Amino acid sequence: MEQKNKIIEYKLIVKGLGQALAVSKLYSFDHPVVKNKTKEVYGEVRKYIATKGKLVFSESPEATLLINGEELISVDSLTARFMQAFRNLKIGSIELLPGVKLDEFYAFIDLLINVDKLQEEGSIKGFLKTKKVTHIIPSFASYKLVNEHETITKKGDVIRADELSPDMIKKFTTDLTAGSIDKKIKAGNKIYQILAHDSEALSQVISENVKPEEQSDQITEILCLIGDYLVDEVNTAKQKEINIRVLNELKDKLLILYEEKKIKIPPLEEVDKTFATINAALQIKGLIALYAKNRQEQAVLYEKLKRAIKDLPTESRLYQKAKEDWDRIDHSRIDTALF
Asked: Which of 54, 40, 139 is nearest to 99 (CA)?
């Protein structure tokens, strides 16, 4: 019961933060509406910290939000909005300590609003220092993995979705539909490599390439195409983590676009089913990669695979692809009647 109440408290705080970010899109940061909403959320945060201690926001390897180490799954657009703003900071965690003042909390919201301008470690630290913030502590992870070789995205390599030409989006979508994205990336197409792992770009692919009267079917179809690529690409456990992060970020982006009435979305249960299927397939591919390389842990990995396969519809293309990968492995040392 205590655990359930804790999660409820976390959800209320995160939704409040999402509301503050949402109204900041309509008004300037100094507008009374934004200030009042921020002050209201600050009251909830201060009350929590006063009784429970610090509040730490961080991200799991699967790109889900952790609050004081507890996982909070995004189920609404306000939570998704905060999660996306937090991810955009590209930091390991941010800690709100007892004694945090209202002005410091204003700075925290300001930081989330202006995240695109403050993505470098020095900029974020400098921003908080300028605002005299001492009770909000960021912890940095200064790299972004974009492929199976753990390539570091260098400054200047990031492609912004709003900078893409319509022709580039159309070409990328055409190649995605044709199943040739992986081939182009292996041939050295760096733009495609980045686009294929950028949730902003992928969400634009969806919003720019669906007709209003057919959006429900088309969104599901494009999600399956993206899922096919993300699953096909996985041949290491690390790549599995990267692609799950991309998938979860994309889901959050679509929720925000839906809230802003920029797209229509299929019934939520259909969207959840599609994302759950892709996620399960990614988990399976990652486990298969580990299984093939780690003989000592095969029995444990085998049990994990059995659990993951239960979430994957047997009629799906992703199930068939996972089965093909499984059949290519030498299973002579263990009973492996999984499929």
From this structure: 54
In a domain, 152, yes or no: no
**Both 284 and 188 in a single domain?**
yes
pTM recorded for the entire structure: 0.62
List % helix, strand, coil for the chain (3-state, nearest 5).
Answer: 65, 5, 30
pLDDT digits (tens, 9 = 90+) for 87-144: 888 787 899 999 999 999 999 999 998 877 665 555 888 888 899 999 998 886 433 3
- Is 336 within a domain? no
Q: What confidence score (pLDDT) does residue 141 get? A: 46
In one letter, which amino acid is 252?
A: D
Residue 108 included in any domain: yes
Q: Can you tell me the distance from the alpha carbon of 119 to that of 43, in angstroms, rounded to the nearest whole number? A: 27
Domain count, the chain: 2
DSSP secondary structure of 65-134:
EEETTEEE---SHHHHHHHHHHHHT-EEEEEEPTT--HHHHHHHHHHHHTGGG--SHHHHHHHHHHTT--
Q: For 284-334, what is each residue's pLDDT tens digit? A: 888 777 766 665 566 666 666 666 666 667 767 666 766 676 666 665 555
Q: Establish if 151 belongs to a structural domain.
A: no
The residue range of the domain holding 22 is: 2-140
Q: β-strands 136-140, 91-96: how paired? A: antiparallel
- Token duo for residue 309: 């396969």
What is the distance between the alpha carbons of residues 275 and 220, in angstroms, rounded to a whole number?
10
Query: How many whole angstroms from its chain centre is CA 297?
Result: 29
Task: Tokens for 159, please give them.
Answer: 């492609």
User: Are residues 292 and 186 part of one domain?
Assistant: yes
